[in-house]
Amino acid sequence: MKTINMKINGTERQIEIDENERLLDVIREGFHLTGTKEGCGEGECGVCSVLLDGKLVNACMIMAFQAADREVITIEGVGKDGGLDPIQQAFIDTGAVQCGFCTPGMILSAKALLLKNPTPSKQEIRRGISGNLCRCTGYEKIVEAVALASDRMRNPEQ
Amino acid sequence: MKKSGKGIGIMFYGTGYGNGYPDVSRAKAKIDHTGRFTIYSGACEVGQGAKTALAQIPAEILGISTKDVIFDHEDTKTTLDAGTCAASRQTYNTGNAMKLTSESLKKILENKAREILNLNKEQTLIFNDHHIYQKADPSKQISFKQIAGSCDLKELEIEEVFQAVTTEMNEETGEGNPYWPYTFGACGVEVEIDTETGGLDITNAILVQDVGRAVNPKLIEGQMDGGFAMAQGYALLEDLNIVKGEIKHHNFTKYLIPTALDAVEVKKIIVEDPESSAPFGAKGIGEPVMIPVAPAILNAIYDAVGVRITEIPVTPEKLLKAIKEVG
Ligand code: FES
Ligand code: FES
C-alpha cells in the first residue's frame, strides 16, 4: 500500500493505493466515481476515458501511481457548478445517448478534442472520437452533438 | 483499380414472440391525492427509448404533457410484467397495454367528472393539463385533484393487459398467422471496391423503414443509424471465429466493430402507415432496421465486381480471394 495525492475533479485528495491498481480502479473503487466505466479493460473501447493533466487517456491503461500529483477529470467533473457542460447538454438535445454506456467516455473524448480544436470539421470529430466504441447509435448523433457543442461554445448567446 | 456498384435489400419482419406463444404486457395506472398520474409497467429502458416513447402514449390520451407522466418501469416490486425487451415488441405490446390502461382510467375520470359536474353522456368532455371541462361550456370544469379528493383513491386505480394475437404456423401447409404485426423496410447502398486490396467503402447509403406511426421520430432516426452501423459491422467486420465451440475473437482487438471513422452518413426515410391494431398505429423497429443492410451490401458487391458472396463478414481477404477466383 502506498498513499498518493491526486487532484480529482478540482479537489486535492489523498488516497491509499495498491501498487498494482489501475487508475480506473482508484477512480471507481477508491473515489467511488462510477461514471467512468470499464468495458474491455485493455485499451480498445474508450469507455474508461478520462483527462489526465488535460490529456485524454484510457484509465484502464494507466497505473494508479502514474497519476500521483497530477490532475484527473472524470465525467463527474466536466460540468461547472453543478450544471452540465455544453457537450453534455448537446448530447441530450441531439439524442446522442442510447444505452449510455459509451457516453461518459465519448464526452471526455469530445472535451479533449474541443480543448485542442474548438472548431473541428465533421471528419475531425469522427477522428477525435474514433477511439471510443459505440454499439447503439451508429455515431451519427454523437458527431452532431459535438458539432452543436462546438457551435454553442463559440456563440454562447444562442 | 476501383470499382463501384449499387445494391438494394428489402425485408419484412414479424415483431413479437410469435407462433402462438403468449405475448403479454401488463400495465396499471393511478391518480394520487395530488392529482398526479402514475403508470406502472415493467418495460426495461435499455437505450431503445421505451421510457420516452411509451410515456408519450398516456400523455396523449389523458391530455397531459409527457413530462407530467410518472412512468415507473423497472421496479419489479411496483410494476407488472411487460415481457422482455426483445423481438422489437415493446412499442406494440406494452404500448397497447399502456394505451388500454390509460383509456380505462380516462373513462373512470370522465364518469366521475360527469357525476360531479352533473353532465349527461351527450356532453363532450375535454381533457387538458390535469383538468376536465365541458366543451360547450368550459366554465364547467374539474381537476384530477378535485376528483381524487371526492372519492376513495382505490377507485382511481386500474390494471389492463394486452396480448398479441398470433397462431402457430402449420409446418406442412405454411398456413397460420405466426407474427403480428409485420414491419417493412428497404436499404440501398453504393460501394467502392479496391480490386487490389479487397477494401470496401460504402460511399452512399439510404435506409427506409415503415414504423406504422412515428411516436418519436428522433428516437427512430437513432435506431436507424444504429441498426445500419451494426449491420455494416455484421456484413463486413464482425467475426466471432468459433473454432470447436470456442470463440476465438473474444475481444475488440480481434472482434472489430465499426468506429466513428467507418460509420456512414445514412439518409433515413421514415414511412408512416398506421397499423390498426397498434397503439396510435405504432410498431417496433429495433431489429427490423438492421435486416436489409447486409443484403444491400452483398448486392452492391455483385454489381461492382460480379461476385456473389454467400458468407459474411466480407473481410478484405475474402473479397480479394473471390475477385481473383472469377478473374
Ligand atoms: S475499458 Fe479502458 S479502453 Fe476499454
Ligand atoms: S449509446 Fe450504447 S454504446 Fe453508445
Describe the structure.
The complex is a heterodimer of chains A (158) and B (327). Chain A is α+β, with helices and mostly antiparallel strands and 158 residues long. Chain A folds into two domains: 2-77, Ubiquitin-like (UB roll) (Roll), CATH 3.10.20; 86-154, DNA polymerase, domain 1, CATH 1.10.150.120. Chain A has five helices and five strands. Chain A has a five-stranded mixed beta sheet with strand order 2-1-5-3-4, sandwiched between helices. The longest helix of chain A is centred in the last third of the chain and has 15 residues, at 140-154. The mean pLDDT of chain A is 96. Helix content of chain B is 28%, strand content 25%. Chain B has a four-stranded mixed beta sheet. A four-stranded mixed beta sheet of chain B has the order 4-3-2-8. Chain B is elongated. Chain B is of the alpha+beta class and 327 residues long. Chain B has helices spanning 50-62, 90-117, 144-150, 217-236, 293-305, 316-326; strands at 2-14, 24-31, 37-40, 69-72, 125-128, 131-134, 141-143, 157-163, 182-194, 200-210, 242-243, 246-247, 266-271. In chain B, helix 1 runs parallel beside helix 2 (90-117) and helix 4 (217-236) crosses helix 5. The structure holds FE2/S2 (inorganic) cluster (2 copies). One FE2/S2 (inorganic) cluster is lined by residues 97-102, 134-137 of chain A.
